[in-house]
Amino acid sequence: MDTFGLKIIASDKVFFEGRCRSLVLPAPDGEVGLLPHHENMVIAVEVGIARMEAEEGKWCEIAVGTGFAEIVNNRVTLLVDTAERPEDIDVRRAQEQKERAEEQMRQKRSIQQYYHTQASLARAMNRLRLAQDKKWNL
Amino acid sequence: MANIREIQSRISSVKDTMKITNAMYMISSSKMTHARKKLADTEPYFYALQGEISRILRHVPDLEHPFFDMREKIPAEERKIGTIVVTADKGLAGAYNHNVVKLAEEILARPGRHKLYIVGELGRHYFARRGVEIESSFQYTVQKPTMHRARDISGVLIDEFRRGELDEIHIVYTRMENSVQADAETLRLLPLERSSFNEMKMPLNVHREAIALYPSVEAVLKAIVPNYITGMIYGCLVEAYASEHNARMMAMKSATDSAQSLIRELSIVYNRARQAAITQEITEVCSGARAQQNRR
């Protein structure tokens, strides 16, 4: 099977660099799957869970933050503000983050702060979802 | 010549100060290595973002978006200009704070209605005393810059820009050229300038690869631009943090050095004074003894 070059860059590190068989990304209107030789495109990425198949049959899940993916000449660059593997997620911290965000949502705040907390709640829940899914698989 | 006790207490006080400056030197140097590592980690993301925007602009030339709107209709005196000023939380860092403040003053002297968003305690105090308009709810520290804080800051500013409360957003920070040189500089964050993304002039006969933007141009730019601003602010914060500690490190190093030379000088003076006292005592004893001999 064909592969394409994939580079995942998070704001604090280069998360992944290498060949990949297929990639599924969370876009604003649902998931988008990428296969080799995809059309040149820039895709907005939402907070969610991305899946990539680096080797055959081996899917790897990644919790990603907002950002975008760019596909040019069979090379994909995924630029997101955070990218984490399930094993790197600290469930307790994510739980605390979620509770803090929920607490702040309850207090009456300005609209701007509301969106802000909402975004941080989304990130926390996304982390938790990925981490907890893994737990059940064990 | 001062008396011996005075010199002694002076030496011990200089020694105490030297201990403090030396400790601060070491703290700053360890914090600086941290900051530099952070800077190196975030650089690929930052440059990729910048490259990406320029690529999108190149392929989609007739892009209309609020973030690129220069708002030229607003005359210069009426423009609402917001400036983020990144200073340190405390002094003792040589000319670091002065350079930033001086640059901020230059911006304030230009026409327009200015508003300052200050990161760092020292700058806040300085401009509060000067009576410049400061956004009072903007309370962030410069210690240990995080992506989270950068996201907070950019959220506030992008919101104000969208609502028309601000027409331009600048940031004043200190960029580290290398370990000996750091310069304060200003950067415009919003509106984005096409030319600042070093757009290449492409000849007409070259095939332009078409890049589709999915799901829409707005959605893609909405995902990229705030991230770009956040990344930019984060980069500036980290850069400023590294240069602050570099400046403090150098200031503390020279303070320690001059304390050492001061101690050397003082101990020479002290030894002389001690010698003089001894000599005087001997003379006194001798002359006393001779007086006794003469009497006999």
Describe the protein in words.
The complex is a heterodimer of chains A (about 140) and B (about 300). Chain A has helices at about 90-105, 110-135; strands at about 5-10, 15-20, 20-25, 30-35, 40-45, 50-55, 60-65, 65-70, 75-80, 85. Chain A is α+β, with helices and mostly antiparallel strands. Chain A has a five-stranded mixed β-sheet with strand order 2-1-9-8-5, with no helix packed on it. Chain A has a five-stranded antiparallel β-sheet with strand order 4-3-6-7-10. In chain A, a hairpin with a 4-residue loop joins strand 1 and strand 2. In chain A, helix 1 (about 90-105) packs antiparallel against helix 2. Chain B is an alpha/beta fold and about 300 residues long. Chain B has five helices and five strands, in the order αβαβααβββα. Chain B has a four-stranded mixed β-sheet, with helices on both faces. In chain B, helix 1 runs antiparallel to helix 5 and helix 4 packs across helix 5. Chain B is elongated, with a radius of gyration of 30 Å. The interface of A and B includes residues 11, 14, 39, 68 and 81 of A. Strand 5 of chain A pairs parallel with strand 5 of chain B.
Outline of the structure:
Chain A has helices spanning 91-106, 111-137; strands at 4-9, 14-20, 22-27, 30-34, 41-45, 48-55, 58-64, 67-72, 75-80, 83-84. With 138 residues, chain A is an alpha+beta fold.
First CA to last CA of chain B: what distance?
38 Å
Q: Which two protein chains have the largest interface (Cβ within 8 Å of the partner's Cβ), and how many residues from each?
A: A-B, 31 and 32 residues
Note the beta-strand portion of chain A: 35-45%
Mean pLDDT of chain A: 84
Helix and strand content put the structural class of chain B at alpha/beta
> Could you estimate the helical fraction of the residues of chain A in percent?
25-40%
Order of strands in the sheet with most strands of chain A: 2-1-9-8-5
Beta-strand residue fraction of chain B: 5-15%
* Anisotropy-based shape of chain B: elongated
Biggest sheet of chain B, strands in spatial order?
2-1-3-4
Order of helices and strands of chain A: EEEEEEEEEEHH
Chain oligomer state: heterodimer
Q: Provide the low-confidence segments of chain A as ranges.
A: none
The Cα radius of gyration of chain A reads: 16 Å
Instruction: Determine the mean pLDDT of chain B.
Output: 84
Largest sheet of chain A: 5 strands, mixed
Q: How much helix is in the residues of chain B?
A: 55-70%
* Number of distinct beta strands of chain B: 5
What is the distance, rounded to the nearest whole angstrom, between the alpha carbons of the first and last residues of chain A? Answer: 30 Å
